Structures are given as structure tokens and as C-alpha cells.
Amino acid sequence: MILEISAACANSRGCEGGPDACLVFPAAIYVLTANRIHQVGIMKTPSFHPLLILLALLAGIVAILVAFSGDPGSEIGLFFSTGAEVAPIFLIALLAHLAYIRPRLRPFVALLTVVLLLALGALSWVLSLAPWITVVETDDLPLEMAMTLFVSLVLCMGAVFTCTLGFSSRIRRYISSYLPIDPENFVHTVGLVTVAGLALMPLIPLLVLGHAPLADLMADPDFALAALTPAEAAKTDFYGLLWMVVGSFIAVGFLVRRTLSDVLERLGVVVPTPKQVFFALGTGLLLVLIFTLIDHAILSVWNYFGWTVTDQHYMQALFSSYLTPVAAVMAAIVAGVGEELAIRGVLQPRFGIPLSVMVFASLHAYQYAWDGVLSVFLAGLVFALLRERTNTSVCAITHATYDLVLFGLLMAGIGWV
């Protein structure tokens, strides 16, 4: 199933993003780009907004800094810390689009992209140690932990190296035979490297542990990962949705290279017709039935071979904050609008179905075992095919309906599907 609720691990969001944003000097970028308005044609168009670009850069940096502070401390702090989950990515995307105008920025943006990869690798490496998180500072490390430490480090460094191969023009030309990218386009280059990192890094803890690392953290009484109240969950999800929408718009060139209408067209966002709305609602309901059967089939196979399955008690604790009508509706909207906008809107048209679906599944690997990741992958494949035949708006309604029905079933006590 795909109860993809980013706020389920809201208290760990400060780990994401890394220190890369601290390297950004937005005022200098603003001056450099503004001084070239008379030199570069694109800056004469309505798509370029220097002041808004500066504000976006500042907002992203503040989000990361507030998240690293550990305690948001206020409502504004909570808003910015929630944005730390997507801020590093949209900052790099924004700078990559600016590098289209100012080529001298390209080495700097490439460096930030590598820093982001290292941060993702560090996060996955730390999460690989989740079962021993309370003993990492002791002198006498368990042998199993030491082995996991070494294996996960090798895998993380290997993943970072693999992702950086996307900077090679020869490799990009080869990949362009299979993906709709322009091997000479710097924005596509940065996107390819970043997307590869998002597809590979989150799988490493699951690969070395065999189960969701978040399950260990939630089961550890010494680790501060308290459950959110339903009101907190709904509020955090709402803030996260705002950041996700703005980040998706910026990722495809808003403020720099595309107008709002161009962005909506690129993302596949339209005002759905009544027929499309009813189709999406019906498809969402149908998918609940289909994936109930698929999940039971996957579970049967996993049990037959004795493989680790996603623990149901852990799942109840993970999603307990969302079992109220308001929190469930907000979570479903976030999953439907936010995730579909980012995955099916931003990634799929540029990087194709397989890679975008892999990212979609991989981002759930921190909270599911392999059975859950497989189910998410299959669901992502369905949404991807739906996007090919319709648009992102239909996918968002379908996805939100699917999740909302699942939450409704859970609140009714019918069971964890």
C-alpha cells in the first residue's frame, strides 16, 4: 500500500538537506543576474523575477538553518523547518536554472549537487545503524554493527560515485538514448545526478538491515521520535504541501525560465473536467480493491519464503497521528497533490517512467520493508501509466482518493491493508 505521509517522520527532517545550502550567497547571485538583464534576452521576458528569486533562495536557506537548530520554537519556525525536506533540492534546481543565464555558476552548482549527494549518503549511512543508535558512542561496538557500518559506508560511497557519473557528457549521451534528456543541457545534468541519488540512497538502509530503519527508531525509547498529535500532523502536512508545490514549480524553471502558464503546462496541471473528476474518483476506489489483493499476494509470497515483512504494530504507531478525519484528509491531499506534482509532474516527463517510479518507491524505503516498497513501486507504475494517458491533475485526485479510502478503512477498524 502507499500511505506516503512525509510528516510521519517529521522529527527527523532536520537530517535531510545537509550543509550545502550554507554555501549559497543569494545576494551575490541577485546582483550578478540583475546586472545582466540588459545582456541576456531571457531576462527581458516575464518569466524572470530577480526579487522573487532572491526571496526563494533566502527562504530555502532559512528552512535548512531552522531545521538544523533542532527546535523550531514557533509557528514560523515549524513552517520553515518543514520546508527543509525539499529546500536543498529546489535551491539546487533554482541555481541550475540561473546557471543557464550565468554559466560561471555551473561549477558552484555542480559542487552543491555533490554536497547534496554526500548529505543523502550520510543520512542513509546513519539510518543503517538504527538498531544500534544508542550504542554508537561506546568503545565496544557489536560485531554485527561494525560489519553494517562498513558495508553501508561502502554502499553509500559507491552510490555517490555512481550518481556523479551523470556529470560525464559521454554517459549522458548514452542515457539520452533511453531517457528524454538533452545531454548538453546543464539543468538536465543536475537533475539526472540528483534524481539518481534520490533513487539509490534511501534503499541502502533497507538493503543492509532487511527492514525499515524507522521501525527501529520508533521502537527505541531513548530516541526522541515522538508521535505527532492529529492537529500537529495536519498542520505539518499543510506546511509541507506548500513547500512541495512551490518547490515543484521552481524545479521546472518558475521565476527564471518559465511563466506560470508554462509551468502548469510542463507539470501537466489542468482544471479537470467533471468527467475526469469522476474517472479519478472511480479509479481511486478501484485501486483500493486491486491493491488489497496485490498486498495480500505479496504478503503470501514473503511469508512463504520467510522474508521480513513490514511490521503491523509499527505501522499502527507510524500512522496513528492520521486516524482522524481532518488529519486523514490533509494527509491524503498532501500525498495526492504533493507527490504526484513532484513525481508525475516534475520527474516523469523528463526522466521517464522507470526512473521516476523508482524514486517514488525508494523514498518510502525508510518506513517500509521490501514488501511495502514493492507495493509502492507497483502503485507508482499505475499512477505513471495514468499520467501518460491523462494528466497530473487526474493522478492527484486518484492518489488522494486512494489514500483517503485507506485511512477511512483504518479508522473504521477494518484492518491494515
Automatic annotation (TrEMBL):
Keyword Transmembrane helix, does the record have it? Answer: yes
Q: Does the keyword Nucleotidyltransferase apply?
A: no
Keywords, alphabetical: Membrane, Transmembrane, Transmembrane helix
List the molecular function annotations (GO) for this entry: endopeptidase activity
Give TM regions.
51-70, 76-101, 108-133, 145-165, 186-208, 238-256, 277-302, 314-334, 341-362, 368-386, 393-416
Under the heading Pfam families, the entry gives: Rce1-like
UniProt-listed GO biological process terms: CAAX-box protein maturation
Residues annotated as signal peptide: none
All residue ranges annotated as the CAAX prenyl protease 2/Lysostaphin resistance protein A-like domain in the record? 325-405
Which superkingdom does the taxonomy of this entry point to?
Archaea
Q: What is this protein called?
A: Abortive infection protein
Q: Which organism is it from?
A: Methanofollis liminatans DSM 4140
Upper taxonomic lineage: Archaea, Methanobacteriati, Methanobacteriota, Stenosarchaea group, Methanomicrobia
